[in-house]
Structures are given as C-alpha cells and as structure tokens.
Amino acid sequence: MNNISEAFIPELRKIEKDFHQALIKLIAIPSVINEIERYTPFGKNIDLALRKTLEICEELGFRTFYDPKGYYGYAEIGAGEELIGVLGHLDVVPAGSQEEWVTPPFEATIKDGKMYGRGTQDDKGPTLAALFATKALMNLGVTFNKRVRFIFGTDEETLWRCMNRYCELEEIPSMGFAPDSVFPLVYAEKGLLQLHLEGKNETKLRLQAGNAFNAVPDTATYTGEKQAELTDALDELGFSYEAAEDKVVVLGKAVHAQVAEKGINAINRLLIGLKQIGYSSKTIEFVNELVMEDPYAVKIFGDCEDEASGKLKFNVGKIELNGEVERLSIDIRIPVTADKQVIVETLTQIAKEYGLDYKEFDYLKSIYVPKDHILIQTLMKVYQEVTGDFVSEPISSGGATYARAMDNFVAFGAIFPQQTKTEHQPNEHIELAEMFKAMHIYAKAIYHLSR
Questions:
Q1: What are phi and psi of 355, to 5 degrees?
Q2: What pTM does this model have?
Q3: Are 185 and 371 a contacting pair, CB within 8 Å?
Q4: Strand 414-415 to 181-182 pairing
Q5: Which one, of 155, 150, 40, lies nearest residue 400 by Cα?
Q6: CATH 3.30.70.360 fits 191-364, yes or no
Q7: 2-189+367-449 adopts what CATH topology?
Q8: What is the H or E stretch that residue 421 is in?
Q9: pLDDT digit string, tens, across residues 109-164
Q10: Which DSSP category does 287 fall into?
Q11: Which residues participate in catalysis according to the annotation?
C-alpha cells in the first residue's frame, strides 16, 4: 500500500485538469428540474447532464448503464460479488437572480483559485472528484477486489424519485458514501418529515407567505385591515417590519430548516402580531398556543432529542389562508432514535383540537451508522491520514443526503471544517486546492473499501 499511496498525489495531478474540464462541461448544462418537458421524467437538461456524465465515465474506462426511462444511470469498475457504492446527483437548484452572481451561473469560471458555477459544490463537483479519484487508481493499475459503482441521481433536489426507482430495480451496494456534505463524515441524519396542517377557513383573513417547507421564512406580508394596530403590536413585541401604504412586511432571518434555531421565522411573528390585535383563526391559535418562536416545539413534543443527533427541529415554512382553507406547511427534523409514528400521532391529535387535519407530504427515514462500524472506521482513518486532522469527530446532521437512500451509507465530504458552504447560494463555488485534497481522500477511501 505504501508505494501505491505515495503515487496517489502525482497521478491525481496528472488528471486534475481533465477533472476541471469535465466539470466545466457539466456546469454548462443547466440541469434544473422541468417536468413539463415531454419524454424525460425531469426535463431535457437533466437528461443531458446524465448522458454527458455517462459519456465521461465511458471515456475514463468505466462500464455504464442508462436507465431506459431516464431516472438514473451508473458507472462501474472492478470485479467480485460485493458492490461498493458512491451516490451523487446531477440535478441542481435554480440559479436565482442573475444579478447576484459575479460570473454566469452556468458558465464555469476559474478565478482566484476557485471555480464558480451552479453545481460546483452541490453536487457535480464532489461527484466528479470521486470519479476522477477512482480513475487515478485505475491508471495506477489497482486491482479492485470488489465492484465499485457510481450511481447518478437526477431528482435529489425534489422528491428522490430517481433513487426510489433505482432501489426498486437494481442491486443495492453493501456500503458506500455520498460526496454531498462535509468532512470528516456524517454518521447520523435526522428523519425528514414534511406535512400540511389544514382546515376550513372560517374567517375573512387572507394570507400567503413562505416559499419552501425547508426554509425559515424571512418575510411575511400582511395586506388586511388594522395595519396601524399591527405595527404598534410589532413595536411592542420588538419584531422588525417594514410598513408601506397598503401592507406590512414582517421581517425574519432565513436559514435552512435543519438549523431553524439560527433563524427568525417571519410567519410565526406575523401570526403572533395578529393575535395581539384580536385576530383569531385555526392556524393563528395553533401557532400562538403551541409554537410561538420555539424551533423545537416543546409544547407539542416535549423534550424530544437524543445523544446521536440532538433535538427535534420544527419549522413553519409556508402559510396560506384563502377563501376555502387555511394551511400551514411544516418541516420537522426527527432525532434518529425517535419513533416517527409517535411524532405523527402526537401532532395529528393536537392539531385536531384546533380543527386542523394532518396531511403528510413527504418523508425520508433517518440514517444512523454506529461509530464503530467498519465503514466509519475506514473513512475516518483515511480522512485523518490525508488531513492530519485528529480533532474533528463524525457528526450528526438535520440535512438530507442520498446516504439515507440505502443502508450502511454515510455522507462523506467534500466540504472541509471551517470551509465556506456555498450550495444553493449565488456565486456557488469550490476552492480547487481543497477539492484536490478531497480527491486524494476519495482515492484512498475507494482503495480501502474495495480491498
């Protein structure tokens, strides 16, 4: 192993520019979901990204497979009965406002040691880094005693239908990793439950705020009566807002729902203000009596937490009161040892007391791979050898990666501790030197896992 290990860095240097060029080609494909387009499940551009990735894999010497319906593809190398997996996704979130980007989002630009572009960090860059790390092993003549399969998903940013189809039809690896998070690795991911609480709107109130289950809303706009009274109440409460001639915009702080405690929920604050000035409705009473600004919803679930993954997180991501219904759209991150059914039954019963019905939208089960598992031990050893970092520990997360799609998988890189996360943001980028280090880690990891 020592001779092979010493050759990793020189070999990776030889193909580093090839990795950059391949990534530039993938970034140029704006693989944002578009289900309106015919013949492909998630749109022409996502299919183009999948086909281009498989073309790159074939050029590198991998055996490839394209799902006839276009949900997924994979590339494989090696021999043997056991299968090791690497799970990456090729779809990306929209670029958002072009004005906020310093470079064109779908034109990869290398500047000051960084590559900018949508998908560089999430997840085209890390996926290709692991792929080219494996190519370096191939160039060094490494014999793969197990098969190594790169599985490419196309629907990670929405509903994971790609992974659902793969798991229904294909061989499941015995273990592996998803290069779509942080180092050193994520051994526990909370269960992700998204749901609506809704009931008949028996008031004259009309509200609509929030954009996503999994985002703490940073604004909530009110256009009804008693706006002056509302601003007085908001002042008394100490809540920030902006007032115009015909509306009041309550201000919060947007963060991902997995860290809801770091944000300020503008919807909750608006409902608290409306209650102060005498308004009442099913959702107003529910939030005021049970939630307020508590991101852990202790009045509903008690102190729900565990040592492995921490506290339950509760986020009201959207609200709608129209002529027929009032609806809260809620994101809950469930500790890995908690019983999802108990959570559902508790919330269903309490919501009924307010005239609200529980309607499940989506659920992703939690993952928990004990720290003494051979996968954790192997990946941590590799990370420590390459980085010299013996301080960082395996972490738990409220986020959701493909690691939950299969048993004995964890999220592994490619963002290092203290490194800036730019996924889903304007000016998304990777630091090329850090990504090269990640390639070195992935080369060693795949070498060991395939022995």
A1: 75, 20
A2: 0.82
A3: no
A4: parallel
A5: 155
A6: yes
A7: Aminopeptidase (3.40.630)
A8: none
A9: 999 999 999 999 999 999 999 999 999 999 999 999 999 999 999 999 888 999 99
A10: I
A11: 91, 156
